Predict the 3D structure of the following.
Amino acid sequence: MPESTRRRELGRGERVLPGVWRLRLPLPWPGVPHCNAWAVAAGAGVVLFDCGLHEPGSRAHLERALAQVNLKLEHVRLLVCTHAHSDHYGQAADVVDASGCELWMHPDHTHMRAGFDDPDEALARRFEVARQSGVPIEPLREWSASARDRGNGIARLVEPDRELVEGVTIDTDLGRWTVHETPGHAPSHVCLHQPERRLLVSGDHLLGRVSLYFDYGWTPDPVGEFLASLDTVQRLDARLCLAGHGRTFTDVGAHIDANRALVAERLERVRRAVAEYGPITAYDIVPLLHGVQLSQLTAGWWLPETLCYLRHLEIVGAVRREGGDPER
Ligand SMILES: [Zn+2]
Ligand SMILES: [Zn+2]
């Protein structure tokens, strides 16, 4: 869709179940047109799961989506973030400021904090990882400059009032939700489960359309963690998934299997690339994995993904790090 058309999209709200509303919020990202926040009735107000990215005009989209289902920011009794990515946490400051509510989030959010504590250092670190992975210097400089201009999509750093870890529960009119730590996509990722109604707020761990992203460099093995988190969610046996992007979906088990299958397929492609081509950089593996070269648009997504597969294969002993500069 052309940029001009896409940018005219507005925040929209719709009821998906009695007491559950989907707030669809536009994103400025190619290929990811919107994200969801989920409002769940709780007494005189709502618990809000996730809150969308912060950028000029984003708060109006959130307020518009809420207004369409007769809600206001002031109705938010509690903000729960599934993870500390900007499209799920970016407007936390707006929500907390407008409603006076608490924010609950997992404590392992250093991956988000790093961009605040020292944005230049965080960017320099990503630059160095990419350079070490074989990305040519000129396009990398371009990417780095535009990343600086884009900003981080987060209004202001808000520390959680409560750490969202196993054992914490969230009370709503639809019953009590339990917290399940599901790292992999991001170290801070959790899913929220309502066992009687078999509902799952899945963030970016499970999406309607299988889409894999892993934060690289914060935990030992994001791919291994993601696979373990799929097991965690499978055990919950949820019936309806309220995901961070896209529509609700049922057949949760089939989605879990599809994620496992895609991870296995991509791991195998990476393993085969190394077996066939010998010492190879992560940058050179990307086109063998995705069929096209890394571009400015895909760099921030596919490079960490590839590095995470290599890391996992290294841990299970299927590939070996040769070192060098760039590293192969
Ligand atoms: Zn995410
Ligand atoms: Zn997301």
About this structure: The chain has eleven helices and twelve strands. The two ends are 37 Å apart (CA to CA). The first helix runs from residue 3 to 7. Confidence is low (pLDDT under 50) at residues 1-6.
